[in-house]
Amino acid sequence: MKHPFATILRRSQVVLTMPRLSDEAVIEIQDLLHQALDLFEEHYGDQIDHFYQSLHEQAHDPALDLGDSPF
Questions:
Q1: For residue 57, what are the contacts with CB-CB under 8 A and spacing of at least 6?
Q2: pLDDT of residue 39
Q3: Cα within 13 Å of Cα(59), Cβ side
Q4: How far apart are CA 29 and CA 71, in angstroms?
Q5: Contact 41, 48 (CB under 8 A)
Q6: Nearest residue to 41 via CA among 24, 33, 31
Q7: pLDDT tens sequence across 35-65
Q8: What's the CA gap between 50 and 52, in Å, rounded?
Q9: Model confidence over 8-38: pLDDT tens digits?
Q10: Calculated CA dihedral for residues 58, 62, 65, 68, nearest 10 degrees
Q11: How far apart are CA 25 and CA 9, in angstroms?
């Protein structure tokens, strides 16, 4: 499956200039980002799991399966 933003990402580059922030502001922003990611994963977790499971299944080649490998 082609990444939906692959074409856009190849044509442009985003450069973010990060401002100087106090330690407290950095921690508050980090906490906000962690909370947002937690909510995102809680809402879309099943879709995320399905996507990666599909990738794994596509990459698995039964012809290369040697059975119970010691490695």
A1: none
A2: 98
A3: 7
A4: 43
A5: yes
A6: 33
A7: 999 999 999 999 999 999 998 888 877 676 6
A8: 6
A9: 556 678 888 999 999 999 999 999 999 999 9
A10: 100
A11: 30
